[in-house]
Every structure is written in structure tokens, then in C-alpha cells.
Amino acid sequence: MNETTKILTIQDISCYGQCSITVALPIVSAFGIETAILPSAVLSTHTAGFTDFTVRDLTEDLPEIRKHWEKEEIYFDAIYTGFIASIEQLDYIKDIINSRLKPGGYVFVDPAMADHGEFYNGFDQEFADKMGELCKLGDFVLPNTTEACYLLHKPWKEEFTREEMLEMANELSQFTKRHVILKGDTHKENELGMIVLDKEKSSAEVVYNDKIDYVSHGTGDVFASAFVGSTMIGKTPCEAAKIAGEFTKRAIEKTVGDENHKYGVKFEKVLPHLCELIKNI
């Protein structure tokens, strides 16, 4: 990485609650990477655990922002997408990737649309199919098992065997240029695994971190952001997955026991430890 490395992250801003851009911007920046943002929407809070939140859809702004960047000749070394507010935005985002990504740049797609066997509010199979088209532009695609099942039109279940996870990762290779990072391998007791598939080498490895029995909104965004940052400083996909998993685990540990903090994880408390993780993994 050089001093001018620039990443664009495209996802929503939840003004309160630790997810999406409010997670991605500080975490990716902590790796020493200049991070630009393109909000897909602005919400008063995130959508888990809050009611009557406000939403400002920014679909119509995306093409005008792209045109301005084209005029200013602004390009990015990587583009990282997360929560997308509408199906119409997916085509606009593909245009941004095709026009604003530097030659040889990376695309990271976190298909943030579902979890625990259900779509997030407002999403459906039509959106998932359109998301699959965006994923095909990705060098790194990072679904959880629910998102993977919707991409593949498969039924979801609480537990998948190792063989099923590997089969799913292989099937997901149609939705990436290079790598699949499939989260949610739970068959090993007290550990949480990720299948890291290299499409070019037709190989897959499993990366494990200690599992913390705690469910919180935004942990996928924490993981994806740490993975993006680790990759952009030269870590291999398996190393990046290990760093991201460990960083997320430590953020959860900092949050467990605080009953007043159910709107995210305290990733800020772990940012000072990033250098340690990068050196040791």
C-alpha cells in the first residue's frame, strides 16, 4: 500500500447505532487508508431494536455524484459495498465501479441483505438476484449463510455440515471474480469458522476464531471493514479473515455484559489493538 491508497465505501449512514458507514469509515481509516463514502441512505437509527426510525433514500443522488467525480477525475483503488437501500441503486453502483475504479483495483461486496434465515426489512428474492449481479463484479464476496442461500436459491437452516459449507462456497464461486469468504461455519464447538475460497486456484480453507455466544447488530460490518483494511495492506485472504474475525470477537468481548449497549459492539475499544493483530497474523 502506498500513501495515496483510496477506498470508496458505499452503504447507508445510520446516525445512531454502530453499523454500515459509521463502522466502515473509522475501521478502514485505522489501517492508514484514505476512506471516502457514498451513502445509499441516511437513517436516524439502524433498523434493529429501534422503532419509528426515519429513512432518507439517496437513490437519485448516486448518478449525479458519479458525474461530479468523473468531472473531477476522482478514482479509487478499491470499492467496498455494504447495505444498499434499493434495487435501483444496484445498477448505479455497477456504473460507479465500472467508471471510478482504477485499473487493477479491488471490489469488495458484502451482500448485506439478510441474516438468521430472513431478509432484512424491505428486501426480497428479486433484490437478492440483482445483488448476485453486483457480486459478480467483486474480487471478494463476503456473505453469511442466509445471504448465500438466497443468492443460490437454497433453503436455509441453523446448522450446516462442513461438507455443505464447502459445497455452498464452491457454488458461490459463480458470484465472484476471485474469492468467496463464507461466514457461519458453526460445526466446531466454541469456534466460529469462515470458508475462504480461491476461485483461481480452485481451493478452499477454513479459518477459525473463538466463538462468543452473543448476538449483536453490525458485527458483519465490523468484520467486513477489518477484512477490507487487512487485504489492502497486503494480507492474504486467510490472514485478513483471521484478523477480521479476531477483531470482531474482541469487540464483542468488550460489549458483553453491558445491557445498555444493545445497538452494536464496542469496536472503538479495540481499534488500538489493530497494530498488534496485524503484526501477529
Characterization of the model:
The chain has 281 residues and is an alpha/beta fold. It is built from nine helices and eleven strands. The strands form two sheets. Strands 3-2-1-4-5-8-9-10-11 form a nine-stranded mixed β-sheet, with helices on both faces. Helix 1 (21-30) links the parallel strand 1 and strand 2. Helix 1 packs parallel to helix 7 (219-232), helix 2 packs parallel to helix 3 (87-100) and helix 5 (145-152) packs across helix 6 (162-172). The chain is globular. The mean pLDDT is 94.
Helix count, DSSP H or I runs of 4 or more residues: 9
Low-confidence stretches: none
Q: What's the end-to-end separation, in Å?
A: 17 Å
Most strands sheet? 9 strands, mixed
Structural class comes to alpha/beta
How would you sum up the global shape? globular
Attribute tags:
281 residues, alpha/beta, 9-stranded mixed beta sheet, two-stranded antiparallel sheet, 9 helices, 11 strands, 38% helix, globular
